[in-house]
Amino acid sequence: MGAIKVFIKPFKTDGTYQDDFIDVTADVSEDTIGSITQKLDGSDFDTGVFTNSSFSMKLNNQSGSYNDVGSLTSMFNYRRAGTLVRVTWLFGEYEPILGSAICGEAILGPQEIFYEGILEDKATTINVETNLITFNVLGRASIFEAVEIPSGAPVNTDTVKQAIFDILDQTEITTLLTVTLANIDPDLNFVIDDVSDFENGTVKEVLDDLLAASNSVLVIEDDVVYVKSRDESTELIYTFYGQASPRGIENIANITNYKNGMNRTFNLWTWEGTSLVARNTSSIDDYGVRKKEISYGFVTNNTTRQAILDNLIGEFGIPKVEFDLKGLWDIDTIQLDQLDKISVDYPSTSIAIGDNVLPLYGVAKYGTDKYPFTEFSLTIDRDERFKIIGITVNLKMQEVTFKLREV
Predict the structure, then answer these.
(1) What DSSP string runs through 87-125?
(2) 162 contacts 190 by C-beta, under 8 angstroms
(3) How far apart are CA 310 and CA 373, in angstroms?
């Protein structure tokens, strides 16, 4: 198990952030800290809708350090909401200190930053009996919900790429995140021809529609915003091994929620109020009609509409296996990111019958040893490839679970 540390960076009185993070680990109640979940889609049964990551934590507030602004003992001088929160992980039980580190037990290495978010204050509660204060922490992308799209942007004839940049390139957002036009590369970069639907919308609302229509996702890596296609990484990033794999050390704790992909298969796409259609005939023949109708008011050109339908059916027209894989918590697995391409070597498991041992070729005796019982309920070939579309980190149990989708 490793050491989890939590830091916060409050505002100065002028509304800018303090220079350094404050270590609050000693006040964090480890038994109450929640899981951090990030995923590319809002539902296992639909497509699109960017989902923000979040978790909750409780801190000991006996000293009053976490009281709201105005309290003499509070560390918050401007406002409590918006305070930056950083969670790090050290590969070891404790941080090595010169003169006290035990050889063979203390592990040298930097603390890995695997989450940075923003303190939300709407649901903050205090338990007077226990002196515990509960905070919700949202990913930095939560700022998208609190900011309107800028006046005069986007405009008709903007591409999706330009429109996304324009709505993100605002001080409230760029204070927390790095936004550059070069990092915005939607899968389908069509032209917007009617922006009236965007009026009085939040960045989150407009962004959701633009991402869904362009079959793109938004990810944040090292505080930098990237918009890209749903394509997996070019290189194979990691391999998970099951208990019967002869090729690597077992690093799969569990596989759950295995779906054959029909939950998110749509092989007939139509545009509401038109005769436009995109269909995957072979998928319809094999699985029956799975229809999805869409409509986006910011696209009125039928050629563009047809391009959107054709693009979406390419990703969701046939079944693609999805499942949750719980991996061992280590320095490699916590560094895996959304859309990383991975493989899973999960062969069938053979179990000896009764008190017998597994028979080995050249050793087992005919008429004495017995064939083993083999479990065929789930077999995953190591040549298959999957991409990560969701990550859940359980801080309390120090477990990491990946939602995988076949590529």
Answers:
(1) EEEESSSS---TTTPPTTTS---PPEEEEEEEEEEEEEE
(2) no
(3) 47
Is 53:395 a contact under the CB 8 Å cutoff?
A: no
More confident residue, 227 or 98: 227
- Could you tell me which of 140, 144, 161, 141 has the C-alpha nearest to residue 203? 144
Instruction: Specify the pTM.
Output: 0.81
Q: Please give the residue range of the domain that contains residue 255.
A: 236-261+321-406
If asked whether residues 199 and 276 sit together in one domain, one would say no
Residue 388: closest CA among 329, 323, 328, 314:
323
129/39 same-domain check:
yes
- Of 335, 322, 323, 320, nearest to 400 by C-alpha is 335
**Tokens read off for 73:** 């003992």
> Could you tell me if 248 and 388 lie in one domain?
yes
H-type helices in 78-177, by residue range?
Answer: 160-168, 171-174
pLDDT digits (tens, 9 = 90+) for 238-280: 999 988 787 888 889 999 999 999 988 999 999 999 999 999 9
Structure tokens at 346: 């999960």
CB 85, CB 76: distance < 8 Å = no
Task: Provide the mean pLDDT of the chain.
Answer: 87
Q: How far apart are the first and last CA of the chain?
A: 32
CA distance 346 to 241: 6
Segment 283-331, tens digit of pLDDT? 999 999 999 999 999 999 999 999 999 999 998 999 999 999 999 888 7
Q: Are residues 255 and 401 in the same domain?
A: yes
